[in-house]
Design brief:
By secondary structure, this protein is α/β, with parallel strands linked by helices. The protein folds into two domains: 121 residues, Response regulator (Rossmann fold), CATH 3.40.50.2300; 95 residues, Winged helix-like DNA-binding domain superfamily/Winged helix DNA-binding domain (Arc Repressor Mutant, subunit A). It contains eight helices and eleven strands.
């Protein structure tokens, strides 16, 4: 059982999600706006957050940034959005979300993603430093250095970079990366492609000239270190 915080301004959707999660054995707290959700996050210390993007008073992107940067919480966040646009998905990853679901969605699909993220969050924390060419990853500090630049990547782009950097000469198939990041039984659709784009954009926004991920069409992805 996990404590899950649901932040959704539509009370019908919020009630349905909470009822469904509670029937699966989880404890569920509900907030109808961003500020109340932030207060509940401080008080209840959720193990996972289901977060609507379009919230009154404090939108989902800003909520997620504060959750990560001010509260320093690393609990997984699933963002709910009515917009199936690449820019919206990239913005969610940039803000610190771990996954996203496009409305309308089926509750069993939400359950699969919740369980996959909880399993990964409850796993053993990784420590140590990975060095691959120009890239240096400090797992404990959750930071990345490229040449003289320091990057603070959101959780999922950081996890993707770690996987690729552990075997910098290996070409990882899409299926291998999806299983490693989201679990065996998660529905992925375009999530991996969006995550790759978010990771590349984080490097570019930090001022790095390195495109860290090479796409080999029909084969998969590989770390680019130079």
């Amino acid at each position: 059982m996990a404590r899950i915080l649901v932040i959704e301004d539509d009370p019908v959707i919020g009630a349905n999600v909470c009822d469904f999660l509670q029937r699966r054995g989880h404890a569920c707290d509900y907030a109808g706006d961003g500020y109340l959700g932030l207060a509940l996050a401080v008080r209840q210390a959720p193990e996972l957050v289901v977060l609507d993007l379009n919230l009154p008073r404090l939108d989902g992107l800003e909520w997620c940034r504060r959750f990560r940067n001010e509260l320093h919480e690393d609990a997984p966040v699933i963002m709910l959005t009515a917009r199936d646009e690449l820019d919206d998905k990239l913005a969610g990853f940039d803000a610190g979300a771990d996954d996203y679901l496009v409305k309308p969605f089926e509750l069993p699909e939400l359950a699969v993603r919740v369980e996959a993220l909880l399993r990964r969050a409850q796993g053993r924390a990784l420590t140590g430093v990975i060095v691959a060419g120009r890239i240096r990853i400090d797992r404990e500090a959750r930071s990345v250095r490229v040449d003289d630049l320091e990057l603070r990547l959101p959780p999922k782009p950081l996890r993707l970079l770690e996987l690729l950097a552990e075997r910098p000469d290996k070409v990882f198939s899409r299926e291998t990366l999806e299983r490693a990041i989201w679990g065996e039984d998660a529905f992925r659709d375009e999530a991996l492609r969006t995550l790759v784009a978010a990771t590349r954009r984080a490097f570019a926004q930090a001022g790095s000239t390195l495109d860290p991920i090479e796409t080999l069409h029909g084969h998969g992805y590989r770390l680019r270190t130079q």
